[in-house]
Amino acid sequence: MSRLLHVADGPYAPPVPAHELTVTAADGARIHVEVHGPENAPAVVLAHGWCCSTAFWAAQIRELAADHRVIAYDQRGHGRSPANPAYGTEPLADDLEAVLEATLAPGERAVIAGHSMGGMTLMAAAPRPAVREHAAAVLLCSTGSAGLVASATVVPMRAGRVRTWLTRRILGSRAPLGPVTPLARRILKYGTMGPGSAPQMVDACARIVHACPSRVRHGWSQVLDLLDLDHGVRELRMPVEVVVGSADRLTPPVHARALAAALPDCVGLTELPGLGHMTPVEAPDLVTGKIRALAATYIPSARGERAVLAEESA
Predict the structure, then answer these.
(1) What is the distance between the alpha carbons of residues 98 and 83, in angstroms, rounded to a whole number?
(2) pLDDT at 9 (0 to 100)
(3) Are 118 and 143 in contact (CB under 8 A)?
(4) Interval 172-181 mean pLDDT
(5) Contacts of 302 (CB under 8 A, 6+ apart)
(6) What is the distance of C-alpha 92 from the center of its chain?
(7) Are 262 and 232 in contact (CB under 8 A)?
(8) How many Cβ atoms sit within 10 Å of the Cβ of residue 106?
């Protein structure tokens, strides 16, 4: 019945950052930021989803930090970022813009990866000057731009008003999740992960999600319920790759396909058979590989570093 905020060992245990900082957003919200990896390496920025934290990206951070500068931050109210009364897509965009401005040098380009609400953050922030300046390429994992509640398949019944009503009540519940028990793991696995997810994956996600305060979970559920970011998708003019699990009950593949069709420069859509909503945890090697490939392709310094390493190993 542990209340541990994340697993303490194994591949999903968060690595110790090289350094940490607190960034202040436009409305005064304080955002916790972690930086991993070599100081002058190609940059990667990671934005997690609803009810998660930087710990969600543990597998990606562990692998990428060997030769990338990995910047991960807690969305407001999540992880070590204090709760703030401002809920909405514009505050999410404010936070991302503040993180980019605080951690990247003027003109420095990075790959930005967003999972679920992190992907929605990118859509909301797409027109912002900091995103235009710093985003070399984007990876969108398990996300959507509108109509999330009506399309979710968490409730196993035919689509329609009754299912939408029930889904809204479940996702918007104010009830505390309580300790991580075997039953809690089974419920979380059903709602957010594929049926073949390994127990260590389920446990890692359960501890992260259960650590999110119920008031924060409820507040952001209302934002997701009313989400309408189709306009932001069209503003993501840099190369964007999309990843989704075929068994995703929260943002089913219909959303990924709509994103791929609407993006000005979609460079790939990957549907992962049998995987659920937590793709960075369920398919860590694939998601890490996508981020690494985007950096190697679209960040000039990454291409140069890769060439130097190839020469050194020859």
Answers:
(1) 17
(2) 76
(3) yes
(4) 92
(5) 42, 68, 295, 296
(6) 12
(7) no
(8) 7
Angle at 206 between CA 156 and CA 226, to 5 degrees: 55
Residue with tokens 């519940």: 173
Give per-residue pLDDT as tens, 186-228. Answer: 999 999 999 999 999 999 999 999 999 999 999 999 999 999 9
Return the structure tokens found at 314.
């020859």
Tokens of 43: 């940059």
For residues 268 and 138, the answer to whether their CB atoms sit within 8 Å is: no
Q: For residue 212, which amino acid is it?
A: C
Q: How far apart are the first and last CA of the chain?
A: 52
Give, for 205, the enclosing helix (H) or strand (E).
helix 199-210
Measured between alpha carbons, how far is 227 from 74 in angstroms, rounded to an integer? 20
pLDDT in tens, 30-45: 999 999 999 999 999 9
- Sequence-distant (6+) residues with CB within 8 A of 168 are 149, 225
Task: Answer whether 0.85 is exceeded by the pTM.
Answer: yes
Cα gap 284→299, rounded to integer Å: 22
Report the amino acid identity of residue 137. A
Question: What pLDDT, on a 0 to 100 scale, did the predictor assign at position 4?
Answer: 54
